[in-house]
Amino acid sequence: MQQIKSYTNYQKFWYFAKPILLQHEAQNNLALGITLRAEHKPEQLKLGLVLFINGQASKVAIISAFHGGTLILSHTWELADLCILQDFLISNEVVLHGVVAKVGLSEEFAQSWIQYNSVSYELLHHTEMLVMEQLQSNTVTQYVLRQALDFNLKVVTEHCQQFLLDIYPQAPQDEIIASIDTVAQEFIAGRFGFILEDNSKNALGIIEIIRQTPNYQAISTVAVLPINRGKGYGRALITMICAQIFKSGKIPLLFVDKNNPLTMHLYYSLGFAAISETKHYIFKTAC
Q1: CATH code of 106's domain
Q2: Is residue 115 domain-shared with residue 147, that is, in the same domain?
Q3: DSSP letter string, 19-42
Q4: pLDDT value, residue 140
Q5: 120 and 177 part of one domain
Q6: pTM of the model
């Protein structure tokens, strides 16, 4: 017997979700990171869903606040599970603005979802999740990686804007500019945003640890301005942040866009390896 239960109470949801998400901690990094953060920022988790099979909690999904409501499926969901999930969401009139799941599952969900809703869908991101099990090199000595502080807001804002333009090339620039102040302030306020500097304290790039789970730290916001590209600063950023993560006793993890072969090559050359592949589809109201 299969049954889905929904939870808005963090503690009740976490009781069932914790062992399931931690079983595949790396592959569930996105869902796990959002769920952990919701303990202190409950607005980021709109709804927690647990699939029970014969009374046993088996699989977890969350609806995050990202893009107004994005469904994120844990690693163990299969195609056979989608029918009961969609029936639950439709019967409870849940509004979704996107879905993130492993390749194959996300497409199937999106195709089925539009049959019951007046929406269309399009691919936002096709990503690989990479982990680095061992640091290959830590010989960067000519640069300093330090925490971003309030007086760095201008530099951080400039780099965050470039980062958003790079990962959302089709997004209207006015939308990116409208959100950039918040992004830059959160980069600094989170205390896990870093700036790469040379010996003259010139800013060469930025990088951020965006999520932490028990054994992993997820890297994001790797940004080097176009004028500084091709000089090895991106490699230095990744090498130095990974050394810092390993020193803390955790494992570096990141997502890379499949449509960015140069960046993928950089990460692979540094020792990262792929462990999963996901697609993020967004739903748009049909005209």
Answers
A1: 3.40.630
A2: no
A3: HHHHHTTTTTHHHHHHHHHTTT-G
A4: 67
A5: no
A6: 0.91
